[in-house]
From TrEMBL, chains A, B:
SUPFAM superfamilies: CinA-like, Molybdenum cofactor biosynthesis proteins. InterPro entries: CinA, CinA-like_C, CinA_C, CinA_KH, Competence-induced_CinA, MoaB/Mog-like_dom_sf, MoaB/Mog_dom. HAMAP family: CinA_B. CDD domains: cinA (cd00885). It comes from Candidatus Faecalibacterium gallistercoris. Belongs to the CinA family. NCBIfam families: cinA_nterm, molyb_syn, PncC_domain, PRK00549.1. This is Putative competence-damage inducible protein. Residues 4-171 form the MoaB/Mog domain. PANTHER family: NICOTINAMIDE-NUCLEOTIDE AMIDOHYDROLASE PNCC, NMN AMIDOHYDROLASE-LIKE PROTEIN YFAY. Coiled coil: none annotated.
Length: 438, 438
């Protein structure tokens, strides 16, 4: 089965909004085993739209439209597509009742234009919209179909999930099951290692690159959800075999979620001490519902005096080793744990730029420390892309990665270990600094 | 002049990447006075591509391509478009030299495929790529043009700004000047108020909605930059006349920048105390280069005991009024100022959900406080869309808005004022709570 995605709206052609609908629908159609051959965006112009739809209808089994279902004179999609599929529209009192009562609840009056939204296919079907006023529409002629959905992403996605995808699955007499692996590590490296698994017919597998990690989505089409789940699990094993414990979780939105869930499962608490990341780690942790079970204290210590006053970092250590150094990161982590009483703490100090930096500590240098039990682990990073936000985001991700290893009770790889009690000892700090400066 | 944007790449049709290039180019072409009539995305398939280009060439004066310039057999755009414009390709030793030396610097070997990237138009022009290995191309036939750029957004944007836009400006014998206004307030409300100014030929004006604010971009085409600047300024005045001081700044990336710049200009410092926003305000402030001049301390006090220990919030006040309340917000702001010694402080406590909430404090209830001089200002918000991230983002934005008013030395509108010294006084706290609970 082949499809084309057609987005309708002059605001897209002007670049006023980003077309995220086309990506979403492409992913969903690919998962259904439907080949998307073209995406296109056209304006609200009757003649151009009609010509376009005729040509697309001749090429593809299914046309998926978003946008152009509003009440204004500009909104022409429904009547234009109806005509192309040999259908027409009729007024639907039930839809009109929904629209008028929605307006009444909002304390607003309907205008004659709103009646357009209550027009539904005569031969095709209307598609109920549980999240807005405009119903969608389904047209069909000689086995060729067109589906029309609203342009507002939230409404479109809901209509897709509740109404359109089930119809397509029923047509194909199958069900879909998905499994998402989240993988730590350099993106192009991960993609290279698993490239042989990314061109499969069923299950399909796709990789999406994120900061410091990748997402691998496996989707199986099967007669039952149970069969689909088994197929996904078997295919996931191939990824695990290649990637080992770089796969850190399944079916979560991101690393902060896994950190919070792991801490909760083990009854542990975490605190944060941030300099260059400036609150980014705390913000990601508190973005997870239920974070308050495991996270209570975050210190954003941007100034040296704040590091001293809130975290007990020794000003002489800053003076001696620089504020961007292993010894300072270690004292920050130790201090956050002490000030908050948490089981674990992570700390970040670094140089995000654009200014500052020298030969020893160029922009992009970041030290990350984690305190757990009697240990403090310290790690040095140097991010080469000289971009403030990118450096901060990667540093925050690395700190969460360290937090995860500590929460799992694993000794983090690639870190220098110093005894928590030795974090004030000049010789131990000198050794730490020497080990990480090289 | 009319144009179509054609993105080439199977990875776009699979939804593996989001097409941000089309939006960027649509904005840029609109600013140049070029009407984009269609955007389309097609795969790396020779026959489909050729057919598509022939049809598009018949419709539009200019075709703008991104993607398909890589070294693999899949990358067909250049030869296909060349043929459609009656041109062909020839090997360019200078480009080949660039490619081989780039590979040598990376410690890698070129493959025979890489020679494809050194092929350039015979009659048209190559477009130098200062940020990657693949040169772009310009084809022309009977006044109809095609320009080919790489698909990687950073390379494409650089080639556009350095090479393609200047060519188009020279053709149109003009220059471009832009001015961006940043406007506080409800997005649809702002758009409604300025709608009469958004359909202008020159300067053009477009509105982009963001969390808690809008961006209005004014772009003038003129013979000189000076003329363009004057045209933009005159048109901006129309927006100022409609919007007044809702326009908070010009040509900055966002509110945090204006807050940092305003604080710096006035020699003031700010600290933050965050509960439900969990570090988001601090993270936005520290995202601004130079933030360390004005921001040193951020407290993420997610637990009640953290509010008490770090900010001196009275547990009895939490007990009496609830942790999500005006009295607690006021004590948090006062405490952050005291603990950090900053001139100003802002604090947020709220219920981002998804759980919790009752009739008095439903999910989405947020209290924001700002401390300055002898005053603490407190404001209550209720965000109706029940989405954790959206509630947090809007609360952080509202706190920055309050910080801006305090930094400007303005009494913030819509706030309840309490004397800083009265923040421990039971009667004053009761009055504050009563005023904001209603």
């Amino acid at each position: 089965m082949t499809a084309e995605i057609i987005s309708v709206g002059t605001e897209l052609l002007l670049g006023n909004i980003l077309n995220t609908n086309a990506q979403f629908l492409s992913q969903e159609l690919a998962a259904l085993g439907i080949t998307v051959q073209r995406q296109s965006t056209i304006g609200d112009n009757h003649d151009r739209l009609a010509e376009w739809v005729e040509a697309a209808k001749a090429r593809a089994d299914l046309l998926v439209f978003t946008g152009g279902l509003g009440p204004t004179a500009d909104d022409l999609t429904k009547e234009t597509v109806a005509a192309c599929y040999g259908d027409s529209l009729t007024f639907d009192p039930e839809e009109w009742e929904k629209i008028t009562s929605f307006f009444a609840r909002m304390g607003r009056q309907t205008t004659p234009n709103n009646r357009k939204q209550a027009m539904v296919p005569v031969h095709g079907q209307k598609i109920p919209n549980a999240h807005g006023t405009a119903p969608g529409a389904w047209f069909e002629q000689e086995g060729r179909c067109a589906v029309l959905m609203p342009g507002v992403p939230a409404e479109m996605k809901a209509m897709w999930a509740e109404q359109v995808r089930p119809r397509l699955l029923a047509r194909q007499n199958c069900t879909l099951h998905s499994l998402t692996l989240r993988v730590l590590g350099g993106e192009s490296d991960i993609e290279y290692r698993v490239r042989g698994l990314l061109k499969n017919e069923n299950p399909t597998a796709a990789i999406y690159c994120k900061t410091g990690e990748s997402e691998i989505r496996i989707t199986a089409r099967a007669a039952s959800d149970q069969d689909g789940a088994q197929m996904c699990r078997a295919y996931a094993k191939k990824f695990y075999d290649l990637l080992g414990d770089a796969v850190y979780d399944e079916d979560v939105p991101g690393l902060a979620h896994t950190v919070v869930h792991t801490l909760a499962a083990r009854g542990l608490t975490l605190s944060t001490a941030e300099s260059c990341t400036g609150g980014m780690i705390a913000q990601q942790l508190t973005g997870v519902p239920g974070a308050s079970d495991v996270f209570g204290y975050g210190f954003v210590t941007y100034w040296e005096q704040a590091k001293a006053r809130l975290l007990g970092v020794n000003p002489a250590v800053i003076e001696r080793y620089n504020v961007v150094s292993g010894p300072v990161a270690a004292q920050m982590a130790r201090g956050a744990r002490a000030a908050s009483g948490s089981d674990l703490a992570v700390a970040v100090t670094g140089l995000a730029g654009p200014g500052g930096g020298d030969a020893v500590r160029p922009v992009g240098t970041v030290y990350i420390a984690g305190a757990a039990g009697t240990s403090v682990f310290v790690e040095k990073f140097h991010y080469v892309r000289p971009d403030r936000e990118n450096t901060r985001a990667r540093a925050a991700h690395a700190a969460l990665e360290l937090a995860l290893r500590l929460a799992q009770g694993k000794a983090p790889a690639g870190c220098y270990r110093i005894d928590a009690a030795a974090c004030s000892d000049p010789a131990a700090l000198a050794a730490l600094d020497g080990a990480l400066i090289l």
